[in-house]
Design a protein that fits this description.
The structure is a homotetramer. Chain A is mainly α. Chain A is built from nine helices and no strands. The structure holds a DNA duplex (21 and 21 nucleotides).
DNA sequence: GATGAATGAGTCTTCATTCAT
DNA sequence: GATGAATGAAGACTCATTCAT
């Protein structure tokens, strides 16, 4: 009765897993984490409740896997964008575009993502499951900031990253919810905010 | 005009209600909305579950009442701050202090408030209950912005307010969670962000 | 969400608890521990599933409380029987009657008791819950044996007690299941067994 | 007479069955009947859940087959012991050794056996499946007793057998659980009990 | 015969809500 | 108004069993 189940992760399993995560993401977007019942997730994924547990030990594990997929998803998007570009040498505007555009696009096409990423106050269970996501994102942003403003003390760099991340998180729900025109306008504002916040840091040499 | 009894007759009821809302706020802060059971709220308020339902139709009504109390609370704080001050004539720095300081103080001493105000993705039930809070806050900010930058189109003013509000919301959880020193640093950053965002709007005359 | 529920135990509660334990005992007798669902226990007790959990934290707690009631029940029966009698001075036959008769009567009128007491191989959960019962009974028998055969080493006395207890346990199911005549015959045999086993020990002085 | 294939064709099947029964026995010993899931049995037997059901209609059938194997196992052990010995002419001590030693050895090396044999109160399903085992054992003991004490009425002989069997059952769990030294001591006691119980019957001629 | 993914009824437990006192 | 026992509909999760491959 211990916990020795391997939790299948092969072959056809991968597709199933993806379907389950899609279903969970959709439900999270619609009703939130707590109200998204595992039975409902299974039903939306087109499988039985029992099958769901063949792939995930419990509900928290779904959130966790989803988190990881989000980290991975944005990392890929960012990776592609930054390929062969020296972060340090980019104009700030361009850097912001490269960082935000894929992130926004990802959140718009996965509206449930904000439950995991954009949420600022969540059940303890969810918080534990998504902490790695938060930390990964914050770490990435900290790295960029450190590269651009090397004179900043580590604590200051991390705080700056936190501020940026929280701003983006805060803006995500209205951005995702808005129609195309309003979204474009909101994104413009968001970028203006970020630029206005980061620009002075870069100008201040040691 | 003849019947002035209700005012006093409900005096005790008012206190009960306040106790319930305090209990709910505390529990929301500690475990979140879903995990805060009505029985636990009643227990913390020192009453029986049955009594709780004499004051609130259901759990959602508690969130709603709490929302209203928060609107009222921050309105009062702001009202006191702005008393006899022409919003339009204030230096931007001072305006930001006047708006944020009471809000932050309120959230710090009521950490549960972020569940209702700072949360960016919540169960449908909660979202419905707290919409009035969001709208009231956004309306107030819109009014200030319109007063300071009268050249802005109404839609732009409202969007600007939304951005400000979402930034503040996003920053609230880390601000509330931080220790005193880090909190001060974070608040400084937050104010810098807001100032950087609003300053250009005010300088641009029609 | 910790475990601070007092688990009511007063006034009307006592009757409820008794009803629940009766229901559990009956069901244990009929279908065994695992197959006795908490919902079935509640139904038989004439209450809802939710109510059951107002009195018992979980299924295991029911078994535990039942165990304690059995210890208490047999202790009372024995207590009454032994009142003012010097265990050491009693003829062996009489002692055996005094020990077994109440025990058998108790098990016959509570056929579920053998699930907790007479069972020799049980789910881990049940085993944990009933260990105190086993230990209490063995301790009591050890005390009697030590009083009657003071020359026995402690380990030997305890082993002797274990043997007696296991014999009685083993005999309980057929005794309980038999009709009146057959039961009388089985009890006669059982007493013969016990007497034959204990008699030599008492004759052997230091 | 023409078709002798089945015997060999099922050779591999026989091994599979044996492996499944071994797995079940082990699991029964470790966690009990209810907690021993069919999937776990299959896994321990090194086959898939589906394959298990090609050999056994359901879980109960496994218990039943295991019962039969135990009957067979002890019958063989006893058969070997009694070979060419006139049961009626043996000294009682020797008879008891011949009957108990193989049984104890068998249970010690198959600790799961007590779930089927030593258990005195089991789920209805299990009880049905193991009744043949109980009856076979009791029948065998009855036969021995009848042979040694022919003056006993059939009902008395059977009752005596029941008593002996239940005593042995009751002692099996502590015997199996004890370490070597304590086990030897317990077995000595057990044999003393049985001898003390049976001796008088043999001495009393009609 | 073998596989293992899939099933879905059923288990324990929780909790918003009601109601007799 | 107050109480707190009672309710019962779910929810997360399990497991004996089936079936397509």
């Amino acid at each position: 009765m211990a916990d020795t189940r391997p939790v299948r992760r092969q072959a056809r399993g991968e597709r199933r897993i993806a379907e389950i995560l899609d279903a969970a993401l959709g439900l999270f977007a619609e009703v939130g984490y707590d109200a998204a019942t595992t039975n409902a997730i299974a039903a939306r994924a087109g499988i039985s409740p029992g099958s769901l547990y063949q792939f995930f030990r419990n509900k928290e594990a779904i959130a966790q896997a989803l988190s990881e997929r989000l980290v991975e998803g944005t990392r890929k998007a960012h990776g592609a964008a930054f390929a062969d570009r020296p972060v340090a040498g980019l104009p700030l505007d361009e850097l912001i575009d490269l960082m935000l555009d894929p992130l926004i696009e990802f959140n718009v096409s996965n509206p449930g993502a904000k439950t995991l990423f954009g949420n600022t106050d969540m059940p303890a269970q969810l918080a534990a499951a998504t902490r790695p996501l938060h930390e990964a994102v914050t770490r990435r942003v900290t790295a960029v900031i450190t590269a651009r403003a090397p004179h900043l003390a580590p604590a200051a760099a991390e705080r700056t990253a936190t501020v940026v991340v929280q701003i983006v998180k805060g803006m995500m729900p209205p951005v995702v919810a808005a129609d195309d025109d309003e979204r474009a306008a909101l994104v413009t504002e968001l970028k203006r905010v970020i630029r206005g916040y980061l620009a002075p840091l870069e100008d201040t040499p040691a």
